[in-house]
Automatic annotation (TrEMBL):
Record keywords, A-Z: FAD, Flavoprotein, Oxidoreductase
Signal sequence region: none
Name used for this protein in its record: Sarcosine oxidase
InterPro entries linked to this entry: FAD-dep_OxRdtase, FAD/NAD-bd_sf, MTOX
Length: 227
């Protein structure tokens, strides 16, 4: 049926109405029978009028692209995607050469707590130095020179699991939050959200990712962001 993309159009709120929902934007208000919300760090802001307030932590993370000395050693067939856990808070990850003439590496949940609207965008020198020390120690052949470093946002739930559900009081509104590790599951999450939007239910069990789980309802739930 096609779609209309409203680029650079901030959504200010989503309001449930008897026959669907209204999406309030800077370009006007749009009505839909069903709405899928994947607004990450802005989720609480846009869902406030639907009575939703989630215990989310937003952090600014960063990744660095390194140019290896020997490119062939870091081709996908010779250098796999990797994740390294070294302690309670030390987790680094990386990818082979793909797209750029460089490998990509970063620290998981190594950044500072921010808000979506006030994040600084600048590279954090402390996090950059931590990553460089790790690369120099464990992957020295891929430790530089740096091509560039860029930042992104994580929107973290206390248990680091996804949120994939419809709102309890307003099932016409579906919401998904990836908790900083959903990209590799994007095709499946997209399929589930399309099922929720078109059929009202998913063909997959979603108990672990629902809004009524203790991590989201118990204010004393101990947050743990390592996966």
């Amino acid at each position: 049926r096609g779609a209309t993309i409203r680029a650079n159009t901030p959504v200010r709120a989503i309001t449930p109405v008897p026959d669907g929902a209204e999406v309030h934007t800077d370009a006007g208000t749009f009505h839909a029978r069903r709405v899928v919300v994947t607004s990450g760090a802005w989720s609480n802001q846009v869902l406030r009028e639907a009575g939703i307030s989630l215990p989310l932590t937003v952090t600014q993370e960063q990744v660095t692209y390194f140019q290896p000395r020997q490119l062939r050693d870091f081709a996908p067939e010779r250098f796999p995607i990797w994740i390294w856990h070294g302690g309670a808070r030390d987790c680094f990850y990386g990818f082979p050469i793909h797209g750029e003439v460089a490998i990509k590496a970063g620290q998981d949940v190594g950044g500072d707590v921010v808000t979506a609207d006030t994040r600084p965008f600048e590279v954090n020198p402390r996090s950059r130095a931590d990553l460089q020390r790790f690369m120099d120690t464990y992957i020295p052949g891929g430790a530089g020179p740096e091509l560039y470093t860029k930042t992104c946002l994580y929107t973290l739930t206390p248990d680091r699991d996804f949120i994939i559900d419809t709102l309890p009081e307003h099932p016409q509104i579906a919401v998904a939050i990836g908790a900083g590790h959903a990209f590799q599951f994007a095709s499946l999450i997209g399929q589930i959200l399309s099922q929720l939007a078109l059929e009202g239910e998913a063909a997959y069990p979603l108990d672990t990712f629902q809004l009524d789980r203790p991590a989201l309802t118990d204010p004393n739930f101990p947050a743990s962001f390592m996966v």
